[in-house]
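QA checklist item 7 of 12: single-chain prediction sanity check.
[x] sequence parsed
[x] length recorded as 140
[x] structure emitted
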Amino acid sequence: MSGEHERLISKEEEELKRIREKKLAEFKARKKMGNEPVHVTDADFEETVKKHSLALIDFWAPWCGPCLALTPVIEELNKDYAGRVFVGKLNVDENPQTAECFQVFSIPTLLIMKSGREVDRIVGCVPKKHIEAALGKHLG
């Protein structure tokens, strides 16, 4: 092998190692979250919402004030509805494909998904009671 070829292989191995480490860190972060909502991505969104009979997905961004204001409510709902409703968060900056697919033009946007299909949508920072009423329509 030429020196150039060996150098390219070495760079590729470094890149693969970096990707593996990043994925492992993401996996560990998900496991540590425990009672916190699960971070959903473009890569696992469809599979995630299909495997849960009812899911509440918070489309948000870290720079969005109303999104940050809604975070404690989402965390409370995750605890209150544990075992009945899957609660996830999707960062729209990091996962633009899913946001575009569901035409999320304003955040925060909450999607209520039943067996992988959108059944309800809440846009904006709303009171917990409003979200619970929407969830209540689809529970049972």
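[x] summary fact logged: The chain has a mean pLDDT of 90.
[ ] second reviewer sign-off
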